[in-house]
Amino acid sequence: MTRSTNKYVSVNKEHGSLKYREIANIMSADGDKMNHATVRNIILRGFTKIVKGVSKDYGSVIKDEEAFEIAKSPEFQQTIINIIKRNDAHNRNKL
């Protein structure tokens, strides 16, 4: 895979996000030895599970490799992040 096709989401600080390396440093400081590649892999596995679950819900079973490619998409990741943030805001307003 070339550098130009290898994209990762990078949300700026105004959204309150952390980069993979920052997450790894926090995890390591808390006693869980972690590096940025491991953090990235864990997050991508989570996004892949979301892709697989949504595709199954809509009756379209896709291969693991295809699900992983979708999960790596910055647009997909940002959409999921936006949905979660919107849901969190909605739940806070209900309290």
Features:
single chain, 95 residues, mainly alpha, 4 helices
Write the layout of secondary structure elements.
Elements (H helix, E strand, L loop, with lengths): L19 H10 L6 H22 L6 H9 L1 H21 L1
Helix pairs in contact: 1-2, 2-3
Structural notes for this entry:
With 95 residues, the chain is mostly helical. The protein is 65% helix and 0% strand. It has helices at residues 20-29, 36-57, 64-72, 74-94. It has one domain (14-94).
- Helical percentage: 55-70%
Mean pLDDT: 84
H-E string: HHHH
Main β-sheet description? none
Which structural category do the helix and sheet elements fall into? Answer: mainly alpha
- Tell me which oligomeric state these chains represent: single chain
Number of helices: 4
According to DSSP, the number of beta strands is 0
Question: Beta-strand percentage?
Answer: under 5%
What low-confidence regions span 5 or more consecutive residues with pLDDT below 50?
Answer: 1-6
> Could you say how many structural domains there are in total?
1
Span of the ends, CA to CA: 47 Å
Bulk shape: flat
Q: Output the radius of gyration.
A: 15 Å
